[in-house]
Structures are given as C-alpha cells and as structure tokens.
Design a protein that fits this description.
452 residues; mainly beta; 6-stranded mixed beta sheet; flat
Length: 452
C-alpha cells in the first residue's frame, strides 16, 4: 500500500511539472510592444472563498445527499475580472471556466470577483458577494495569488412575528421594507422563515430603510412606520414584531393598542450585525440561533442558547477524538509522524462519533503553494465528499480514506491519514485538513487538522 500511494504522488508530481509546472522559471518566446515580457497566473492556487453570509460557502462544494442545516453557493458562475493598474481590462471569465494558467503582460493587476454583474435592487434570497485582490506579474515567472475572500456586498433583512403577536392578530399582517429609491419587499407571517430579503447598497454609510407595519391586532387596525438608519452593505438587519406589556406607554403613541384593557405596545426591535469582518473559512460564520427561523425571541418561553444551557447545542451530536493529532488548533509537526525517508512512524487518525447516522464526510485540504499544484492535478484541490467520492474514488482509496458505505449510515468513522501525512514533508509549508461531518438530521460540525 505504501509503495502504491507514494507512486501516485510521484506520478502526480511529474504530471504537475509537465502540465501545471511547479517551477517558478519559464522562458516563453513572447515580447509585448513595450519590450517587456509576459508571465503566467496559476489558477490552481487562485481560489475564491466566500464568507460572512448566513451560510458558509466554500470552493467547489459537492451536492449534499441528505438534509443540511445550511446552504451552499455554487461558485461556477462567479465573475472574475482582471484589470491592470492603468485601467486596461486583461480579461473576464466565469470562475468555473478559467484555464489552468492565464497569460498576462508584466505589470501590476487587480482581480475582482463578484457573484453577479450587479446586485438586484430588491429581491429574495439573492446575496451579492464581492472581493478583490492585487498581484504582480513578473517576466518569465509563474505567479500564485492568495485566495480572493468575497464578502456580502448588499443588505440582508429578515422579519419575524412572535407567537404572542400572531395570536392577537388577524390574517392581514404585512411589513413593507423600502429603500429611499422606492424598492420594496413585503414580509408576512406566511413568508418562509428561511427567506431573506436583499437590497442593493451604495458606499454611503448613512443609508436608510423604511419599515411600514400594517394589520389588524385584537380587532384594531394598526399602521405605523419606523426608519432603520445608518444601514450599510454587509449588514444583516433582523426585525422582530411582538407584543410587550408597557404601562408607561402613552395612548397617543403609534402602535398603542388595548387588549383586554391591558396596555400593550407593538414592539419593533432591530438588531444590526456587521458581517464584513474576514472570518476563517473553516469556522461557522454564524451560530445557528442567528439564522432566519432560529432567532432568540424576547418573549419566546424557551429560547435556545446560553440562557438555557441544558438545551442541545448545534454540533453536540458530533465529536472528534485523536490519540496522536492535536485538535486544539495548534500545529502538528510532520516530523512527529514520519522519518527522514518519509515513512510513517506513528498513526495519524481521528475518530469521528455521531449520535445520529452520518450522511456526508467532506474533506478540504488547504495546501501550501507547492502541494496545491499537485492536488490540483489530482482533482483534490476542492472540497470532496468521502461518502460520495465520484471520480476521485480511485485515488482516495489508495490514500486509505474511508469511502461510501464505510461512511454513510455509520455512527463511528475513523479518518486515517497515516499514509498521507508523511507526504507533506516533501512539500514544506503549512497544510490544513478540514473535515466536515453532516449527520442524517442535518447537524454538522467541522474539525481542523493542522500540519507543518
């Protein structure tokens, strides 16, 4: 097995050197009109990572085969545009259609990535992600670019009606959210909890959204409006409408109603969440309690989360354990697992235990530039699913990964990379395995395995 695995990696290295070239020198017989030469951008290491949304989105996610607790976004049609510092456009591509190398004149460039040509003025479930990165092309050199991190470029709005309000209300409750340009979306109790509204944003830090409430509450027609100020792109504005006892409320105040002689006010609570901070791609962007349909409501009798520590928390149903690999986020030394001949000296295994049967076991390898080219030549540079390996089954079998029925339906799986870790010593650098487990109830949890 060892010989065969090392032969696969050696063959991949030869393939990479002949096809994708891991060398940083290259002599093309090309000169531009300016007399300068050209270089190449290697797209194998040029990745797009989308973060800071309600979902965690990664490059090349395989389709789920079971219910999931968060959605993924296909990056295939993301638009990649490369522009020189002089404003000259060097090319525009769809991310999924980019060649392995892009030939560019010597110079400085900016690469811009967007999920669409432009954001919708107002629409449902249409997040608009953008990101940018600078790089330089040197003559006769191959350039690797750091991944372009895309963040939310429009405004996200969700609306919730508490059960107490719904119990006192008629069937005509409606909340209209409008921009100053008049673009609007209407939220009702029938709007699915998973639906979010998105509004185009400018760079203005002082944008305003108008929120208009209307409907019958305890037999009384109620209408009032509220303004959300200082709204900016990358924010999730969560609005909750409920009933709250407040004896101090003036009868003349908007939203004041009488229910069985008790002063009740219609309460509009707005929570602002800035989602433009760059988070590590392996971490969950938001706790599930922040996702639409899982909010902690001020008057819900048994809200989940820290206030009720005995309630089940997301990920509690899945655990990771290893006798040899550090799982606390610190770096493991490859030399602790292999000798000078790159032969294993101790096992590198992680035991995964799940309360419910496992449906998917995703693996992502964040590799150093030298190894990234090798993995790309083998089709292992994107996240793959050991439960449904597809065309990767052959090489994944040789590396000793558990596959298909050794994963699906199991409550305990051993993730064994004993034979793989020594190979990391051939390509010095920092490499991270991210294993993401999803059970058949949609629970999921991730674990990083870091090696250097």
């Amino acid at each position: 097995m060892k010989t065969k695995i090392f032969s696969i990696m050696a063959a991949a290295a030869l393939l990479a050197s002949g096809v994708s070239s891991c060398s940083d020198t290259w002599e093309p017989d090309v000169k531009t009109d300016s007399g300068k030469g050209v270089g190449r951008l290697r797209t194998a290491t040029f990745g797009v990572e989308v973060t800071n949304g309600e979902t965690l989105i990664k490059d090349g996610l395989a389709p789920m085969k079971a219910p999931k607790s968060r959605e993924s976004v296909d990056l295939t049609n993301f638009i990649v545009k490369i522009t020189g510092t002089d404003g000259t456009e060097a090319g525009t591509w769809k991310y999924g259609e980019m060649d392995e190398f892009v030939l560019l004149n010597v110079g400085d460039y900016t690469v811009d990535v967007a999920s669409a040509e432009a954001p919708e003025a107002a629409g449902w479930n249409c997040p608009y992600f953008t990101g940018t990165q600078k790089f330089s092309i040197a003559e006769n050199q191959i350039t690797d670019v750091e991944p372009v991190v895309c963040t939310l470029g429009n405004i996200m709005v969700t609306v919730h009606f508490t059960q107490q309000l719904l119990a006192e209300a008629g069937s005509d409750l409606n909340v209209s959210v409008k921009t100053t340009e008049g673009n609007a979306l209407n939220f009702t109790p029938q709007t699915p909890a998973t639906d979010a509204g998105y509004f185009a944003s400018t760079d203005d830090e002082n944008q305003t959204l108008r929120v208009e409430f209307s409907g019958t509450v305890s037999g009384t027609a109620e209408t009032f409006a509220s303004a959300l100020v200082d709204v900016k792109k990358g924010q999730h504005r969560k609005i909750t409408f409920g009933l709250k006892k407040n004896d101090a409320v003036s009868p003349d105040e908007n939203g004041y109603i009488i229910v069985d002689g008790t002063p009740i006010s219609v309460d509009t609570s707005v929570e602002s969440e800035d989602m433009t901070v760059d988070n590590a791609v392996e971490d969950d962007i938001l706790d599930p309690s922040d996702r639409p349909g899982h909010e902690v409501l001020p008057d819900d009798p048994t809200p989940p989360g820290p206030e009720n520590p005995d309630d089940p928390q997301p990920g509690d149903a899945i655990g990771f354990d290893s006798e040899t690999i550090k799982l606390d986020g610190t770096w493991n030394k490859v030399s602790d697992f292999a000798d000078e001949n790159m032969q294993p000296t101790q096992e590198a295994k992680v035991v995964i235990k799940a309360t419910d049967a496992i449906s998917n076991l995703f693996v992502t390898i964040h590799a150093c530039p030298e190894l990234a080219g090798i993995l790309a030549s083998m089709g292992m540079d994107k996240e793959f699913d050991l439960a449904y390996p597809g065309d990767l089954k052959g090489q994944l079998t040789e590396f000793g990964f558990p596959l298909e029925n050794d994963v699906i339906g199991k409550t305990e799986v051993t993730f064994d990379i004993t034979q793989f870790v020594p190979l990391l010593g051939i390509y010095p650098g920092q490499n991270t395995f991210i294993i993401r487990v999803v059970d058949q109830k949609g629970n999921e949890k991730s674990q990083d395995l870091k090696f250097e």
